[in-house]
């Protein structure tokens, strides 16, 4: 998540730059897809990730996981949500990733300047007041990214559903330098 202003600078080949004028943003993306498919050839890959790793990360638009981690198509499973929080649904995906598709390692990535740092659980109360219904999910807001990474590692490590919990590592990505900083798990 991001609370900062959108940066106009982007890759020259992005959908925004190459799109014809007019149309919705989705129209632009679909147009970009036709150009992508023109150059695409079936790599003949299996669904099982080559590196046998699953990456859980925030959905933040500034975090390019493939670029930041040197990942190629087919290398990993990517599981993203607001904050990169290990929710029940992330555990669901990790369980399928390990038990059905052969991954063994888990990498957790939060980042600096995350939108979740500006929220509190009051967000749920405000939603309830506005729409008359409280969401079943927690906001999972946090003020200390390091501590939240440790909590996320602990949630993965203690899940009864996962087969492999011996290679779980957590990081904070700095959106200004592009560098990962590793977080040591709680002892
Ligand atoms: Zn974020």
From TrEMBL:
Residues that coordinate or bind Zn(2+): 58, 60, 111, 114
Single GO molecular function: carbonate dehydratase activity
Protein origin, superkingdom: Bacteria
Protein's UniProt keywords contain Zinc: yes
Record's keyword terms, sorted: Lyase, Metal-binding, Zinc
Pfam families noted in UniProt: Pro_CA
Disordered: annotated segments: 1-24
Keyword Disulfide bond applies: no
Catalytic activity, EC: 4.2.1.1
Cofactor(s) the protein requires to work: Zn(2+)
Cofactor, free-text remark: Binds 1 zinc ion per subunit.
Catalytic activity: hydrogencarbonate + H(+) = CO2 + H2O
Family membership: Belongs to the beta-class carbonic anhydrase family.
Role played: Catalyzes the reversible hydration of carbon dioxide to form bicarbonate.
Protein name in the entry: carbonic anhydrase
């Amino acid at each position: 998540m991001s609370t900062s202003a959108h940066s106009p600078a982007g890759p020259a080949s992005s959908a925004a730059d190459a799109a014809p004028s007019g149309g919705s943003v989705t129209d632009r993306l679909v147009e970009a897809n036709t150009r992508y498919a023109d150059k695409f050839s079936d790599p003949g890959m299996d669904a099982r990730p080559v590196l046998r790793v699953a990456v859980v990360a925030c959905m933040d638009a500034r975090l390019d996981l493939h670029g930041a981690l040197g990942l190629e198509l087919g290398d990993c499973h990517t599981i993203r949500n607001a904050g990169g929080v290990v929710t029940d649904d992330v555990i669901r995906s990790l369980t399928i990733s390990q038990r059905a598709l052969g991954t063994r390692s888990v990498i957790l990535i939060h980042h600096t300047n995350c939108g979740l740092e500006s929220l509190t659980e009051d967000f749920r109360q405000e939603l309830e007041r506005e729409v008359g219904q409280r969401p079943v999910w927690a906001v999972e807001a946090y003020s200390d990214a390091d501590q939240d990474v440790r909590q996320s590692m602990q949630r993965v490590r203690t899940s009864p559903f996962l087969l492999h919990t011996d290679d779980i590592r957590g990081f904070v990505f700095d959106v200004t330098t592009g560098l990962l900083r590793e977080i040591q798990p709680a002892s």
